[in-house]
Amino acid sequence: MNLKKTVILGAAVAGLLGSSLAIAAEQFIGLPSYRVGPYAAGGSGIFGGWIDYMQMINERDGGINGVKLAWEECETEYNNARGVECYERLKEKGETGNTVFQPLSTGITYSVLDKVAKDKIPLVTMGYGRTDAADGRVFPYVFPLITTYWSQATTMIKYIAGKEGGTDKLKGKKIALLYHDSAYGKEPHAVLEKMAERYGYELTKIAVAHPGNEQQSQWLQIRQLKPDWVILWGWGVMNPTALKSAAKTGFSREKMLGVWWSGAEEDTVPAGSAAKGFTAAGYNVAGDNYPVIKDIETHVYAKGKGNLEDKSRVGSVYYNRGVVHGLITVEAIRKAQEKYGKGKALTGEQVRWGFENLDLDDKRLADLGATGFLPPLKTSCMDHEGSGRVKYQQWDGSKWNVVTDWIEADKEMVRGMIEESAAAYAKEKGITPRDCSKEM
Amino acid sequence: MLYREAGQFKASYEADQQIFPILQDRVGVLLLIGFFALAVPLFADQYWLKAILIPVLIFSLAAIGLNILTGYAGQLSLGSAAFMAVGAFGAYNFMLRIDGMPFLVAILLGGLCAAAVGVLFGLPSLRIKGFYLAVATLAAQFFIVWALVKIEWFSNYSSSGVITAQEIEILGFAFDGPVSKYLLTLFVVVVMALLAKNMVRSTTGRMWMAVRDMDVAAEVIGIRLMRTKLTAFAVSSFYCGVAGALYAYTYIGTVEPEGFNLDLSFKILFMIIIGGVGSIMGSFLGAAFIVLLPIALDVTVPVLLGDLVSASFVSNLQLIVFGGLIVFFLIVEPHGLARLWQIGKEKLRLWPFPH
């Protein structure tokens, strides 16, 4: 016992010394993770993948142009107040302060939204958060990268149109939106209604109260309505419950379309065979036969430095989403180093420029070993979203299979709504939008 | 040894009716307020002000609110977070819709909105008691959050139901830095805490306690139950409402209704249980305990064990330790931290020569 204690203490002291003796430049990234609570499955997967990717960059390349990545986790428990505490705690850490804040919680995103511009730390929200922040003129420090809820809603209608044989066939079709009764679940309403006007389908919105483990009455309503499609805008336990209730009601899972927070192994596996045939959107795909994942396996897991206890989760939807987070963060830092000096630790303000000038085309993605893993991405001062493309994956009972190519969002419609909403925000807060022609 | 309550004779009614009748208490409280108002802003950095002190103060205020209802008037409530939400959204709407609305008035009006809603949901308390009342206030918790999401007017038709607190400006001075926001919070909390301290020893407070101890007996001696219980709900919700408004304006900045969920209500309930049911000071101690302990664990546990076990284990371990400490405290001192302080004082009185 005593020996064990001594060893533990020694290791702790060595760890402390080791971290403080680093001489080379280090880029600090604060990770507001959540590994406990109702969303722990998502949190541990995403933050696990993200950390593994950064570990891989350190192991394989020795960091970004020699700048090692350093990180520290702060447990938020998916709680807004704890998230703010983590934000403040991580802010000043590292050589140049926190580089980027990505809370993976819409609530925490809103809680720090005003603070990031003042502290000059980019706030990156991939696939969640405030949609109209895609207007970079009003929100210089906020990046809802890759795609937003509104873009996703338009791709869903496109996907349905594709299945029905064209947008003209949508007329008179009945689409039910089964949504989590919260701010998150209400995000797509306006877009779907606007598209209903244009294409003439009939939209019925059915709310499910949090947490959504009881959906009898909703599915009764769906049975009476007999919709052609059900869009599942769920979260957590609501997803497997919806799939199971659909099976009980006899509604075809092939006609159910999930949002990207409904489309992970954690959503389908608990539903068992009821999930077979269910299709969901994703801005990253599942699977471990991509070079980037293989690199993580050789450089991280083979050396016993992996973050996940359960290695079988490597290649799952959430894990791969974490890899995307790591990849984009690293690329933004790399881009910023091109402008502000290679081999130096950069400030949040400098990395912000990197996020604003990301250009991950097919060639770059191939270099990164991530072709088809995430959509090509190009951001600018005007457009902080950068892509708007998603793929659809279908659950075959044991794994997710990609069934479409990247589907482009209805940019023209979404962009108009984004600008309108951002302008209203700018007016309310008295923000003068940046002039993008002057940004370089 | 520290000081004795006995032996300080009062020669006037004023002297006898002060909030703190003992000189040392008065000096102590003044020193404490002076320390937090003058010394802390000088030495504390941004992190301490923004992430530690402001939330502790705000939750202390909410805990005082719940303590008035539960600790003094004996009505168990699980709706504190919802009343905070009413206060936050109320203050937001007053600021938004009335030009030139002074900030302090807006948060008081927000508190009054919460008080009105509190009275409404307090009506069942006239018929139901104890755990059953807790269930009735649980309805308030769910209904209010639902209504704030459902009725878009409350959030000024924001697409996602969130509100962003406006800038705070009082008499031309903008409260935008951490120090000024901290001082503003401190001011409101200190004033309201002193008011609460005074209120619980007034007629109103004594009526609450009479109802808490035995409502039939209270009725027999002429206390009107309805009015007493409803004032308790009103005052309690008012405190929670003001705390909610401060939460939105001086702490988080942008809030969503879901942020004020049942978890938060439970947290406030734990604060008063840990701090001391029926004690104003206990509300502060409990809030500090519940807010600070998880943060302290999150800072220390990974440093101690970081490289030995996985991150998920570290996170779960914190929760286990947190829960374990709560159980430990409740076993050692079921009456909360305030009682510990009292015992400490009694012990010190005889120190260093106990019987």
UniProtKB/TrEMBL annotation, chain A:
Alphabetical list of Gene3D superfamilies matching this protein: 3.40.50.2300
Membrane recorded as keyword: no
Residues making up the signal peptide according to the UniProt record: 1-24
Residue span(s) of domain Leucine-binding protein: 28-396
Keyword set, alphabetical order: Signal
Xref: InterPro entries: Leu-bd, Peripla_BP_I
SUPFAM superfamilies: Periplasmic binding protein-like I
Family, similarity comment: Belongs to the leucine-binding protein family.
Protein name stated in the entry: ABC transporter substrate-binding protein
UniProtKB/TrEMBL annotation, chain B:
Name of this chain's protein: Branched-chain amino acid ABC transporter permease
One GO term describing the cellular component: plasma membrane
GO molecular function, one term: branched-chain amino acid transmembrane transporter activity
UniProt key word Membrane: yes
Bilayer disposition of the protein: Multi-pass membrane protein
PANTHER family referenced in this protein's UniProt entry, alphabetically: ABC TRANSPORTER PERMEASE PROTEIN, HIGH-AFFINITY BRANCHED-CHAIN AMINO ACID TRANSPORT SYSTEM PERMEASE
Primary localization class, coarse: membrane
Source organism of this protein record: Denitromonas iodatirespirans
Bilayer-spanning residue ranges: 27-44, 50-69, 76-95, 101-123, 130-149, 182-200, 230-249, 269-296, 308-332
Places the protein is found: Cell membrane
The UniProt record lists the keyword Hydrolase: no
Pfam families: BPD_transp_2
UniProt KW keywords: Cell membrane, Membrane, Transmembrane, Transmembrane helix
